Amino acid sequence: MINLKLIETNFDEFNAKLKAKKVDEGVLKLLLDTHNKLKQKRQELENLQAIQNAKSKEVGNLARNGEDVSSLKTELEKNKKSMQNAANLVNELEAKLDLVASRVPNIIDDDVPFGADEDENVCIKTVLEPTKFNFKPKEHFELGESLGWLDFATGAKLAGSRFTVLRGVGARLSRALVNFMIDFNTSRGFELVNVPFLVNSNTLYGTGQLPKFEEDLYKMRDEDLYLIPTSEVPVTNIYNNEIIPVENLPIKMTCYSACFRQEAGSAGRDTRGMIRQHQFEKVELVSITTPEQSPKVLDDMISCASDMLSALGLPHRHMMLCSGDLGFSAAKTIDLEVWLPGQGKYREISSISNTRDFQARRAKIRFKDGKKNSLVNTLNGSSLAVGRTLVAIMENYQNEDGTISIPEVLKKYM
């Protein structure tokens, strides 16, 4: 949830940063109007309460002196009804403001470039040179089908489009990647956690998936349960509505999970292969920390994911997302894009974000420093998307005869 105090303290900057994230001006106007009306009605309620307190005190004083207080009591009763009406209106406006604000994205960090879409993202650095071949490299789906690793037809038979069955060495390599990623992340100080793949609506609200992105979620019929779109959701919400001692921060966690997304807005995109699936596997990084620590923790998470790609020998680059390409909850995001020689382009394989206190405000995650309770900062990132890493290995480690070599660091896991 956005910090609504910014409407009063720095509205121009607040407004500009939300417009840069493509928030509709009508929504911003509704947000401001509702906020101002609520502020006015709260003041009216406080005035009525002050009158009630003063007149109640006056009634007590007059009654002790034996004077007639009937007219004052009538005034008190009338004022009490006005107070109740004002309180009801305040409650209605608070609910309306929460509803409007719950659909407004996080504001961007100061160093995030303004831009309309992914074409205006900024390359920060490139790691390893793109793989070169003395033959025309194939795409992963050609390689996978010829080797019997990827069975798209059976995936479609079992569940429909955008599902894949991994078989034989392909399935073993996928499992090897999961174990390698978990070991790599734990060696960097991230605690391994295992969480449910089903969560309730409050959990999804806490990390910003609800109510804005309900159409991308798979919901259980007749139950308040949804399949997770990423393990960021349950892992972050381990600390939902909790107060963490400051000495316990930062908390750094890693988690393997399957992820489920309807991909409602991606019709026609990446229809072949494993780039965009309804079900996929991912190893996630999640950190919970203080506002002062969060920039360094973000850098640590980026380094962890990037170093993992380097250990796998996969060329990649770091991209700073511009305002128009940032996710709903993110204040700042660095994407890692891996080189896919079959496609001849870089594709996202990890997205690492600092959400500042946006998720913490929704999920009520705080830390105690002395006597003061403050909102934490939460961060999350893929480390890595397992299917896309498998794709990258297949395309970068392919041989002219159609076989695929196994990266050295994965051999012990095979």
What does this structure look like?
With 414 residues, this protein is α+β, with helices and mostly antiparallel strands. It is built from twelve helices and 16 strands. The chain has helices spanning 5-9, 11-19, 25-64, 70-101, 140-147, 152-159, 168-187, 201-207, 232-236, 294-311, 358-363, 386-396; strands at residues 122-127, 150-151, 165-166, 191-192, 198-199, 218-219, 226-227, 243-245, 251-260, 279-289, 316-320, 332-340, 345-354, 366-369, 372-375, 377-385. The strands form four sheets. The protein has an eight-stranded mixed sheet. A three-stranded antiparallel sheet has the order 5-7-6. Helix 5 packs across helix 12 (386-396). The radius of gyration is 27 Å and the shape is elongated.
Strand order of the largest sheet: 1-11-12-13-16-10-9-4
What is the H/E order? Answer: HHHHEHEHEHEEHEEHEEEHEEEHEEEH
The overall average pLDDT, rounded, is 95
Q: Could you give the distance between the termini?
A: 44 Å
Q: What structural class do you assign from the helix and strand content? A: alpha+beta
Unreliable stretches covering 5 or more consecutive residues: none
Helical amount = 40-55%
Characteristics of this structure?
414 residues; alpha+beta; elongated; single chain; 16 strands; eight-stranded mixed beta sheet; three-stranded antiparallel beta sheet
What would a concise description of this structure say?
This protein has helices spanning 5-9, 11-19, 25-64, 70-101, 140-147, 152-159, 168-187, 201-207, 232-236, 294-311, 358-363, 386-396; strands at residues 122-127, 150-151, 165-166, 191-192, 198-199, 218-219, 226-227, 243-245, 251-260, 279-289, 316-320, 332-340, 345-354, 366-369, 372-375, 377-385. The protein is α+β, with helices and mostly antiparallel strands and 414 residues long.
